[in-house]
Amino acid sequence: MRPIAHCYSSLKGRYASGWQSRTHGTRLVRLCVRRSLWIGRNLSTQPDTCCNATSKASHLRSNIIIIKNDAPVLHRRASKSPTRSSATPESSSEAYKPPTTGLLSVLPCSMVPYAELARIDKPTGTYYLFFPCLFSTLLAAPLASPITPPLTVIGTTALFLSGALIMRGAGCTINDLWDRNLDPHVTRTRLRPIARRAVTPKAAIIFTGGQLLAGLAVLLQFPTSCLYYGIPSLALVATYPLAKRVTYYPQFVLGLAFSWGAIMGFPALGVDLLTNHSALVAAACLYSSNIAWTMLYDMIYAHMDIKDDVKAGIKSIALAHEDNTKPVLVGLGAVQIALLAGAGAAVGAGPIFYIGSCGGAALTLATMIWKVNLKSVPNCWWWFKNGCWFTGGAITLGLAGEYAAKLMGLYDKEDQEIKSVEQV
């Protein structure tokens, strides 16, 4: 009853002229009861934690009592922002709910916004960044002299996975810093930590510095030559958010950044790209193939935001080819597979690679392009999330089988049998 009494007494003193009859007093008491119940209900459903303190403050600030013609009326302040299909930063805070499941639910509340900033709870992007590293590692392993042992391949792969996790998080933080004035106007991104003001830009910059230092620590575990190949990719990471403002093909810039790992596996295993021409051609083809793959899956991803992107002034390949998206996807898939086959040809790959990697990629991409419903946000997300494993897994299995065959000398035995038959 204390909130009711406080509301009643404060309004009675402030608007004494309105107290001319018992009826007016009754109206005000009823209003205060309703307001108290409304506040209590919202505070009970949103625990008093740092994750939603801003939300409660917004609730309390955004409502005022006005007595007009001796009758109290509850009004909500008009928003100063333009009308859009998505929410403003303040309304997005109202809608934010702290995580109740997964890793983020067990983290200290003060760490949750930073974990969300690094997309710890959404690892699909990390997998997309990791797969090119894995491809190049498996493709380069047979080229080393002697052939790279399995434990070295596994250790290198583990380092690439940790690096992908860290650097993808750094890229997301940089992206959110650039887009801090755009994200509040896009439905999917309006609850991101900077957009909802859970993390300040200054704190995000400091956090980015920590992420980059952690990434450097991982990079230093590789041979020294990897430093020269790895550091230039930072320029591409910072460029992608700007590309969305000036070109309808920012996915190409994203592909340049996300596919960089297709180069890194070669120097990581001691294969010198400057002296080994076959390795250089293979790395160039694999890198280009992954750029096409990135443009393909991110074009599907961009369809989830296509309506909000128009209103926010964000450009994407999905907007440029909204009416003929699937033919473009088919073209990108064909380019990806052709370049992947070129990478295998450059290093003398055998039938296991062509059937497993190229054939598997063709089958999974064709299925995804055929079945994805570009008008459905949930369906686009499902294919984006699972297509990573379908296509990336198929290419990995083919490359792993090719590496195992060469490690066990299966192709050498076949060559000897062919030579013996020819001699006979």
UniProtKB/TrEMBL annotation:
Residues 76-98 are annotated as: Disordered. It comes from the Eukaryota. Its EC number is 2.5.1.39. InterPro entries: HB_polyprenyltransferase-like, Prenyltransferase, UbiA_prenyltransferase, UbiA_prenylTrfase_CS, UbiA_sf. One of its GO terms (biological process) is terpenoid biosynthetic process. Residues 80-94 have a biased composition (Polar residues). Its cofactor is Mg(2+). GO terms for cellular component: mitochondrial inner membrane. Keywords: Isoprene biosynthesis, Membrane, Mitochondrion, Mitochondrion inner membrane, Transferase, Transmembrane, Transmembrane helix, Ubiquinone biosynthesis. The keyword Nucleotide-binding does not apply. Its main location: mitochondrion. It is a multi-pass membrane protein. The chain crosses the membrane at residues 127-147, 153-178, 199-220, 226-243, 252-271, 277-297, 328-346, 352-370. It catalyses: an all-trans-polyprenyl diphosphate + 4-hydroxybenzoate = a 4-hydroxy-3-(all-trans-polyprenyl)benzoate + diphosphate. Pathway: Cofactor biosynthesis; ubiquinone biosynthesis; Secondary metabolite biosynthesis; terpenoid biosynthesis. It is found in: Mitochondrion inner membrane. Gene3D superfamilies: UbiA prenyltransferase. Belongs to the UbiA prenyltransferase family. This is 4-hydroxybenzoate polyprenyltransferase, mitochondrial.
